[in-house]
Specification:
Blueprint lengths: L3 H15 L14 H14 L2 H11 L1 H27 L5 H104 L1
Helix pairs in contact: 1-2, 3-5, 4-5
């Protein structure tokens, strides 16, 4: 039995399939905004809060990386500004170059570390969301398997009980069969005697 979420997704797919194409287009369709929004609203209401939270975090992966990139760019810009300031001082030109290179290398390393950390965090969040969803599906699978097994046991018990009753009825009929045959013979003899009189 499919969940309501799967049913809503199927309804959305069926709805999209049933929409007409825009004139002179084979890829764009015309949709009823209210009807589609209603299906999406119901889907949102049926989606567990945990899954929505993980999906939101996963969808923010690009924002996390963009923020990390912005911080990295800011660090590099500061480093370059400091480097230019040092270079502008003629008396310490060589020292300025060396210090600028160290600062830029340090900034690049720090920026790469931020990007690596953000990527790792995003991947961990994605893995957690997938694991959580898989756990939910595993629990559902276990419940369905236990229900099927329980129904099978009850069905087999019912069949065995019915078979037992049937065997008793059959045995009783077999026990009555000789007596029934004798009663039929006696009845025929009585009818014969009555006709002779």
């Amino acid at each position: 039995m499919s969940s309501r979420i799967e049913q809503i997704i199927e309804e959305i797919e069926e709805y999209v399939e049933s929409c007409r194409f825009q004139p002179l287009s084979t890829t764009k369709i015309v949709v009823n905004k209210e009807e589609l929004e209603e299906l999406l609203r119901e889907l949102r209401l049926k989606t567990p809060d945990e899954i929505k939270r993980y999906q939101k975090i996963i969808s923010n992966k690009d924002a996390i990386l963009a923020d990390a990139q912005a911080k990295a760019d800011g660090i590099i810009a500061d480093a370059e500004a400091k480097a230019k300031e040092l270079i502008s001082q003629h008396e310490v030109m060589q020292q300025a170059y060396a210090q600028a290179n160290v600062t830029i290398n340090s900034a690049n390393a720090q920026a790469q570390e931020i990007l690596d950390s953000a990527t790792s965090d995003a991947n961990n969040i994605r893995y957690s969301a997938i694991t959580y969803t898989d756990d939910m599906l595993e629990n559902l699978s276990n419940i369905m398997e236990a229900t099927l097994n329980d129904a099978g046991v009850k069905y087999n018990s019912f069949i065995e009980s019915l078979q037992s009753c049937y065997s008793v009825v059959k045995q009783n009929r077999e026990e009555l069969a000789p007596q029934t045959s004798q009663a039929t013979l006696n009845s025929l003899e009585l009818e014969g005697e009555a006709e002779e009189e």
